[in-house]
Amino acid sequence: MGEVEAVSFLSRRPNIEILEMNREYTEFELTKSDVSMANSLRRMIIAEVPTMAIDQVFITENSSVIFDEFLAHRLGMVPLTCNNIEKYNKLSECDCDEGCPKCRLVFTLDVKCTSDEVHDVTTEDLDPQTTNGGIDGDDNTVEPASVAWRLDAHILLAKLRKGQHIKLEAHAYKGIGKQHAKWSPVATVAMRPIGEIFLNEARMAKLSPEEKEDFVKYCPDKVFKYNVVDDKVSVDDPLLVTEFNDQCLGRKVTDSSKGSQTTTRVMDYVQIAWKPSFHFKVESTGVMPSHRIIQIAMNEMKKKLEYSRDSIRRLQLQDAIQ
């Protein structure tokens, strides 16, 4: 039995087909896989991809209406781009005591309102004190995403009236989303299984046009559509098959084909065949391109699997010796 399971596992060769990809968003299908692998990838994207985020804020002056804690929280949630995140160390893994250019990046903010108009303090006012972190490389600059991507609108941090002043120093460190959401590189990761919906055409043909329209309305997620010209019900959006749940399948449909009106369940008209495939939508917060997030997540997943494999082998060796 163990050999059969091993063969089944080894025969699984996950594959990715890119449907849409740009800097902010990637949509792809994971095929030849199962729920465990797909969900593991989703969790890796959310919680295991390392990024940079502000973790310590030292406020010297703050006469704005924003409390120090609120200001520090807003700074912590600012997405910071980093093209070469792997070249930085985590603070816990660095050989320094309290932070160095290899694990810590320093930003300063010093803004004072001198006019009668309200002054917006934004991420554009954050001044990086080190552009490359003291690390050799092509481009290790870490800066707010709105600055790095040259966006017209920057993230608002506070508003100042005349005479109000904010002066602080912020330290950014490397971390992962499992520690805190501010290190998560994605705004959202949507995953759903892919399946096919087959309609019982013979039974559908016996329904009247009014009954077919009612059939389409029975599913609130608009899985089906009815073509009046062809007098046919068809699947409108196959990706919504996951929304076609037991509650929808359990609804009743009126069937008057037998002379007297009877009710049957929707599942008598519909059959669902699930595929070993999953549809993903990944949206970046701006810390790095969306495809780069997926690539790093896969590398991190590979490391964990290799570590698990080596651990199992060590345990098997210990058992054999004993």
Note down, in words, how this protein is organized:
The protein has three domains: 100 residues, Gyrase A, domain 2; 132 residues, RNA Polymerase Alpha Subunit, Chain A, domain 2, CATH 2.170.120.12; 68 residues, no CATH class. It is flat and about 80 Å long. The chain starts with a helix and ends with a helix. Helix 2 crosses helix 8. The strands form six sheets. The protein has a four-stranded antiparallel sheet with strand order 1-2-16-11. 27% of the residues lie in helices and 34% in strands. It is an alpha+beta fold. It is built from eight helices and 16 strands. A hairpin with a 3-residue loop joins strand 1 and strand 2.
**Low-confidence segments:** 1-10
List the secondary-structure elements in sequence, H or E.
Answer: HEEHEHEEEEEHEEEHHEEHEEEH
Number of structurally distinct domains: 3
The CATH superfamily of the largest domain is known as: DNA-directed RNA polymerase, insert domain
Computed CA radius of gyration, to the nearest angstrom: 28 Å
CATH class of the largest domain: Mainly Beta
Assign the structural class, choosing from mainly alpha, mainly beta, alpha/beta, alpha+beta, or little secondary structure: alpha+beta
Mean pLDDT: 85
Put simply, the count of helices is 8
The CATH architecture name of the largest domain reads Beta Complex
The dominant shape is: flat
Q: Span between N and C termini?
A: 25 Å
Topology, number of strands:
16
Across the major sheet, the strand order is: 1-2-16-11
Query: What percentage of the residues does DSSP assign to strands (E)?
Result: 25-35%
What is the helical fraction, as a range of percent?
Answer: 25-40%
Largest sheet: 4 strands, antiparallel
CATH topology of the largest domain: RNA Polymerase Alpha Subunit, Chain A, domain 2
